[in-house]
Design goal:
alpha/beta; two-stranded antiparallel ribbon; about 10% strand; single chain; 6 strands; 4-stranded parallel beta sheet; 16 helices
Length: about 400
């Protein structure tokens, strides 16, 4: 007997186990627009934006046609101590991928031979060539959490190797991966973002061969509605799916973690309470509003990461405070370092040519967080507290408008 499906916000979402947005269209767009066109690219999105789930779905779809080498640098700090350590670690990881896809043993043995300590990167490059020549399928390399060590010179050397082989393949002088997909928060082809707060920006990157990744990964109202329709089919709550999906989008602007977390809290925490005794009562305008309030008041990994980013980047925090407390308006210029940081971390977006807070939940969360940090006796606190008395009723009024 199969386990009932649940909403999930931790780790990987699997269609057979979790209620989730159908990402088939995104996967097909990536294959058609990037993989089949031999593109190397970076999927850089904010934390908990669905990158790992997308990569899993992409890997499962590609395996029918390609040899997929899917790796992660999540727990690979020791790989970046030297070029030899990285080459040796990659040889081990790729060998596991080859075995899992039933590659002939002689190819695996050739790939797994001891690595030269003197010229590890050069030998790794030659092995990639031999592997791509020996296999009967084109190969795709996927590396998740790639920015864990993206400010490390060993990692830059590895990117340089992939770039050199890509260019040689374009000249028909070499054979290498058909496509390389790197995933993380930071854009690897522009390293001026991946640095310690006390360091000067870096602008050079060997990954300038990468194509721009323009696939929208946020959840639209329609996509959220399709997820809710599957849930409704299982539970029969009688919810107004169109209304609920619009309300969730109004709170989240489609930020994947926030969408899923509101649904999870409604299902698991709001339903069964005194005010909302069952799922039918919970999946209403009032129940979703209660779930949103519960979400803002909880401590979770997304909000913890937000607070850490504010501590690490005080100039970005000041910009956000100016937007919230002073009503400051800044032209949307993604080349501005602070604005680019805000976009990278998922805090900012473009709206009518200006910078805006990404969604209503972030706006209110930041507002409350910044207020709590200011002194009760400060002028800014007294002014902000007065503004907040007007701010919150406006939000309540907006929530209760029939069109939302």
């Amino acid at each position: 007997m199969s386990m009932p499906k649940v909403f999930n916000v931790t780790g990987l979402c699997i269609p057979e186990r979790n209620y989730m947005v159908d990402i088939t269209g995104r996967i097909q767009a990536i294959i058609a627009g990037y993989i089949r066109k031999n593109k190397y690219f970076v999927i850089n999105r904010a934390r908990q934006y669905g990158k790992t789930t997308l990569l899993y779905g992409l890997e499962e779809r590609l395996k029918a046609e390609y040899l997929v080498l899917s790796l992660s640098f999540e727990a690979a700090d020791e790989y970046f101590q030297s070029s030899y350590a990285l080459a040796e670690g990659l040889v081990m990881d790729v060998a596991d991928c080859l075995r899992s896809q039933n590659v002939p043993e002689e190819i695996i043995n050739s790939w797994s031979a001891p690595v030269s300590e003197r010229f590890p990167m050069r030998e790794l490059g030659k092995r990639i060539t031999r592997l791509c020549q020996s296999c009967d399928r084109r190969s795709v390399l996927i590396i998740d959490e790639v920015d864990k060590s993206s400010d490390n010179q060993v990692f830059l050397s590895f990117l340089g190797l992939l770039r050199a082989k890509y260019l040689e393949q374009q000249k028909k002088r070499d054979m290498t991966f058909q496509s390389v997909i790197l995933a993380g928060v930071y854009d690897i082809k522009n390293l001026k973002l991946k640095l310690h707060p006390d360091q000067e920006p870096k602008y050079n990157s060997p990954w300038n061969i990468a194509a721009d990744f323009r696939i929208d990964m946020s959840f639209s109202e329609e996509e959220t509605a399709s997820m809710l329709a599957e849930y409704e089919s299982d539970h029969g709550t009688g919810m107004d799916i169109a209304l609920i999906s619009r309300l969730i989008y109004a709170y989240t602007s489609g930020y994947p973690y926030l969408v899923s977390r509101i649904c999870q809290l409604t299902d698991e925490c709001i339903a069964g309470t005194e005010i909302f005794p069952d799922k039918k009562n919970a999946w209403t305008r009032e129940g979703i509003s209660a779930a949103e309030m519960l979400l803002r008041r909880e401590s979770n990994t997304l909000f913890d990461d937000m607070a850490k980013k504010f501590a690490d980047y005080p100039d970005l925090k000041s910009l956000l405070k100016d937007i919230l407390f002073k009503g400051s308006s800044f032209p949307f210029d993604p080349d501005n370092h602070l604005i680019r940081l805000g976009i990278t971390f998922g805090f900012l977006k473009e709206k009518n040519g200006n910078v805006a807070i990404q969604n209503r939940i972030f706006e209110t969360k930041m507002y409350d967080l910044f207020l709590s940090e200011d002194s009760v006796d400060s002028i800014i606190y007294r002014r902000a507290a007065a503004d907040r008395n007007q701010f919150l009723p406006a939000i309540i009024t907006l929530r209760l408008k029939p069109e939302i």
